[in-house]
Amino acid sequence: MSAVRPPLRSLLLLGGLSAASLHAQATPSGAAIYARCTPCHQATGAGIPGAFPPLASSSWVTGPVDRPIAILLHGLQGPLTVSGTTYNGVMMRYGTGVTMTDAELAAVLTYIRTSWGNRATPVTVADIARVRAKTKGRTKPFSEAELLALR
Prior knowledge:
CATH topology: Cytochrome Bc1 Complex, Chain D, domain 2
Radius of gyration: 18 Å
Oligomer: single chain
CATH superfamily: Cytochrome c-like domain
Helix content: 40-55%
Strand order of the largest sheet: 1-2
Distance between the termini: 39 Å
Order of helices and strands: HHHHHHEEHHH
Shape: globular
Strand content: 5-15%
Low-confidence stretches: 7-13, 17-24
Structural class: mainly alpha
Number of domains: 1
CATH class: Mainly Alpha
């Protein structure tokens, strides 16, 4: 708690809060946000065969971080091959307008990249901002070929 200035520290303690609990309240929960994704991708990340691709054991999730960020920012449309199976659908965008903040996008992507046996680096707000700037002006969902070109 040494990073919190003394007057604020006193106010936090009076209110029964610590700096750590205040930070936890301000940091979105990736698991809670992922609950919005479960109708399609399921609580287990297994997806729905023939309809919605799995997120568990998916190179789209665990590969280059720019790809899942781009998908959430701008959406995805058309065929996408995941673990040898082709899915042909639409994923809505969550990163334009007021759907999700950059902190929420980073939290849910970190959750997805580290759940169900996935082993990938966390996603930061800086990662989201970098991809947002790189794809600025984009008005349509990504295709598989366009995603493969992202590094």
